[in-house]
Amino acid sequence: MRIGKMLTAAALLLGASVTPAVADSSPSASPSGDSAAPTSAGTSYRTATEIEQGQQATASASTGDYLYWSFPADAGQRPTVKATVKLPSTSRSGAQTWQLDVYDGLRRRQACQYGTQTRTAAQGASSVDLACTLRTVRAWSEPWADDPLPGTYYVRLTAVDLGAADLGLPVSTELRVDSKEIGGWAAVDGSLAQPLVPGIATTSQEEETSSESDAAVLSSLKPDDGWASGWWSDRWVWTAIGGILAALAGIGGYALTRGSGRPSRVPQGY
Q: Whole-model pTM?
């Protein structure tokens, strides 16, 4: 009877732990609608247009321009960048190849886990769609590794192969970034002292010297619940459940093997 009660309690605890795991796998919520979506793009890293995850950014440009956006990504997120280039209706001299690249806060080009980041549009095509899903952002990594780390990420969109006659033709672009929260299986020990955000080192130094000085901030966007928000994960829940199940298994094994005690017919001393 006692063993049955213990197994029932373990099953209830195990069922309760499923809820946070399911929540971690859902896409991140869209930001509040009070901030207008950007309608332009930058032309370099320093002038990259900041966008929040879940926003639909648009921009008008000329074929051959380099378009830059930036967005924040925290530990435990797997960002997906999607871009649509609407090509001009006027006749073009030939096919065009467009490419979508993503760089981290150290301006290291990040490989796409899946998605088509380079695509060729036929001469008569009206648009071209590009996508890049990054690897899961890690809270910490070795200095020599090229793992995605928390901080600002840059998106660059441009045509990499087109005829000279097509340079300068007007195009319109749409860009959106969404992230999927990955569970505790992707969590690692350790964390960065500061996220890879431009200007954060200068900001920290000025805050230490004078709280009234204007900090030099080159990037103002950050996750809604702050950086390093991935310190909690369902790995803690599964670890606790594993410890409880191990303790219950030990108690159950002892109860099954200890017997009923000393038989009454065995005299003392034996």
A: 0.72
